[in-house]
Amino acid sequence: MTEAPDRRVNIPEVLAEITGIFERYEAALAAKDVEVLDATFWNSPHTIRYAMHENGYGFEEIHAHRVRRPAGVNIKTERLKLVITTIGYDFATTNLEFRMPNGRTGRQSQTFVKFPDVGWKVVTAHVSTQEEKSLW
Protein backbone atom coordinates (compact mmCIF):
# COMPACT_ATOMS: atom_id res chain seq x y z
CA MET A 1 0.00 0.00 0.00
CA THR A 2 1.34 3.43 -0.97
CA GLU A 3 1.42 6.13 1.66
CA ALA A 4 -0.61 9.23 0.80
CA PRO A 5 1.52 12.29 -0.02
CA ASP A 6 1.78 15.07 2.56
CA ARG A 7 -0.59 17.83 1.44
CA ARG A 8 -0.40 20.11 4.46
CA VAL A 9 -0.81 23.78 3.64
CA ASN A 10 1.96 26.28 4.45
CA ILE A 11 4.41 24.06 6.28
CA PRO A 12 6.58 26.78 7.88
CA GLU A 13 9.93 25.73 6.40
CA VAL A 14 8.44 25.30 2.90
CA LEU A 15 6.65 28.65 3.13
CA ALA A 16 9.91 30.33 4.21
CA GLU A 17 11.79 28.72 1.31
CA ILE A 18 9.27 29.86 -1.32
CA THR A 19 9.05 33.34 0.21
CA GLY A 20 12.83 33.67 -0.10
CA ILE A 21 12.79 32.51 -3.73
CA PHE A 22 9.95 34.93 -4.51
CA GLU A 23 11.76 37.90 -2.95
CA ARG A 24 14.98 37.01 -4.78
CA TYR A 25 13.03 36.87 -8.05
CA GLU A 26 11.40 40.26 -7.38
CA ALA A 27 14.81 41.85 -6.71
CA ALA A 28 16.16 40.26 -9.91
CA LEU A 29 13.26 41.70 -11.91
CA ALA A 30 14.03 45.21 -10.67
CA ALA A 31 17.76 44.77 -11.38
CA LYS A 32 17.31 42.87 -14.68
CA ASP A 33 19.44 40.04 -13.32
CA VAL A 34 18.77 37.59 -16.15
CA GLU A 35 20.84 34.86 -14.52
CA VAL A 36 18.60 34.80 -11.43
CA LEU A 37 15.44 35.23 -13.49
CA ASP A 38 16.38 32.27 -15.68
CA ALA A 39 17.41 30.17 -12.67
CA THR A 40 13.96 30.68 -11.15
CA PHE A 41 12.14 29.16 -14.12
CA TRP A 42 12.01 25.51 -15.21
CA ASN A 43 14.27 25.10 -18.24
CA SER A 44 11.69 23.25 -20.30
CA PRO A 45 9.66 23.72 -23.48
CA HIS A 46 6.61 23.14 -21.23
CA THR A 47 7.16 26.31 -19.17
CA ILE A 48 4.72 29.15 -19.89
CA ARG A 49 4.82 32.83 -18.95
CA TYR A 50 2.04 35.18 -19.98
CA ALA A 51 3.35 38.72 -19.60
CA MET A 52 1.93 42.17 -20.26
CA HIS A 53 3.05 42.41 -23.89
CA GLU A 54 3.95 38.89 -24.95
CA ASN A 55 3.40 35.23 -24.29
CA GLY A 56 6.39 33.00 -23.63
CA TYR A 57 5.89 29.37 -24.57
CA GLY A 58 8.91 27.45 -23.41
CA PHE A 59 12.02 28.51 -21.53
CA GLU A 60 13.81 29.80 -24.66
CA GLU A 61 11.06 32.30 -25.51
CA ILE A 62 10.89 33.46 -21.89
CA HIS A 63 14.66 33.91 -21.79
CA ALA A 64 14.64 35.86 -25.09
CA HIS A 65 12.12 38.31 -23.64
CA ARG A 66 14.22 38.81 -20.52
CA VAL A 67 17.26 39.65 -22.62
CA ARG A 68 15.29 42.16 -24.77
CA ARG A 69 13.63 43.87 -21.79
CA PRO A 70 15.27 47.22 -20.99
CA ALA A 71 17.04 47.59 -17.65
CA GLY A 72 15.59 49.83 -14.96
CA VAL A 73 11.94 49.14 -15.80
CA ASN A 74 9.92 48.55 -12.66
CA ILE A 75 6.16 48.43 -13.10
CA LYS A 76 5.49 47.97 -9.38
CA THR A 77 5.27 51.08 -7.22
CA GLU A 78 3.43 49.49 -4.29
CA ARG A 79 2.55 45.99 -3.12
CA LEU A 80 -1.12 45.71 -2.31
CA LYS A 81 -1.45 42.05 -1.40
CA LEU A 82 0.86 39.03 -1.51
CA VAL A 83 -0.51 35.52 -1.00
CA ILE A 84 1.88 32.57 -0.94
CA THR A 85 0.43 29.09 -0.57
CA THR A 86 2.43 25.90 -0.33
CA ILE A 87 0.94 22.42 -0.46
CA GLY A 88 3.10 19.65 0.92
CA TYR A 89 6.81 19.83 0.17
CA ASP A 90 6.80 20.20 -3.61
CA PHE A 91 4.04 22.56 -4.82
CA ALA A 92 3.44 26.29 -4.27
CA THR A 93 1.77 29.34 -5.73
CA THR A 94 2.54 33.03 -5.35
CA ASN A 95 0.03 35.76 -6.14
CA LEU A 96 0.86 39.44 -5.96
CA GLU A 97 -1.45 42.39 -6.48
CA PHE A 98 0.43 45.66 -7.00
CA ARG A 99 0.00 49.31 -7.94
CA MET A 100 1.60 50.53 -11.17
CA PRO A 101 3.07 53.99 -11.86
CA ASN A 102 -0.05 54.86 -13.91
CA GLY A 103 -2.26 54.06 -10.91
CA ARG A 104 -3.64 50.84 -12.35
CA THR A 105 -3.65 47.57 -10.49
CA GLY A 106 -1.38 44.79 -11.72
CA ARG A 107 -1.46 41.10 -10.86
CA GLN A 108 1.13 38.39 -11.09
CA SER A 109 1.06 34.72 -10.26
CA GLN A 110 3.57 31.90 -10.34
CA THR A 111 3.19 28.17 -9.92
CA PHE A 112 6.23 26.43 -8.42
CA VAL A 113 7.12 22.74 -8.45
CA LYS A 114 10.05 21.25 -6.55
CA PHE A 115 11.94 18.87 -8.83
CA PRO A 116 14.26 16.24 -7.33
CA ASP A 117 17.18 17.21 -9.59
CA VAL A 118 16.90 21.03 -9.83
CA GLY A 119 14.83 22.16 -6.83
CA TRP A 120 12.06 24.78 -6.91
CA LYS A 121 11.17 26.13 -10.36
CA VAL A 122 8.37 28.23 -11.80
CA VAL A 123 6.44 26.14 -14.32
CA THR A 124 3.80 28.74 -15.20
CA ALA A 125 3.54 32.49 -14.60
CA HIS A 126 1.14 35.26 -15.46
CA VAL A 127 1.24 39.06 -15.31
CA SER A 128 -1.72 41.28 -16.20
CA THR A 129 -3.57 44.45 -15.32
CA GLN A 130 -7.00 44.67 -13.84
CA GLU A 131 -9.67 46.45 -15.85
CA GLU A 132 -10.82 49.71 -14.28
CA LYS A 133 -14.52 48.99 -14.88
CA SER A 134 -16.37 45.73 -14.89
CA LEU A 135 -17.50 44.47 -18.27
CA TRP A 136 -20.55 42.93 -16.60
Descriptive keywords:
136 residues, alpha+beta, Nuclear Transport Factor 2, Chain: A, six-stranded mixed sheet, 6 strands, globular
Quick structural summary:
The protein is α+β, with helices and mostly antiparallel strands and 136 residues long.
Walk me through this protein's architecture.
- There is one protein chain.
- The protein is of the alpha+beta class.
- It has one domain: Nuclear Transport Factor 2, Chain: A.
- It contains 3 helices and 6 strands.
- Strands 2-1-6-5-4-3 form a 6-stranded mixed sheet.
- Strand 1 and strand 2 form a beta hairpin.
- Helix 1 runs antiparallel to helix 2.
- It starts with 11 loop residues before the first helix and ends in a 7-residue tail after the last strand.
- The mean pLDDT is 94.
Topology pattern, helix = H, strand = E = HHEEHEEEE
Gap between N and C termini:
50 Å
Q: Cα-atom Rg, whole angstroms?
A: 16 Å
Number of strands: 6
Give the topology.
Elements: H1 12-31, H2 34-40, E1 48-50, E2 55-57, H3 59-68, E3 78-87, E4 91-99, E5 105-115, E6 119-129
Parallel strand pairs: 1-6
Antiparallel strand pairs: 1-2, 3-4, 4-5, 5-6
Helix pairs in contact: 1-2
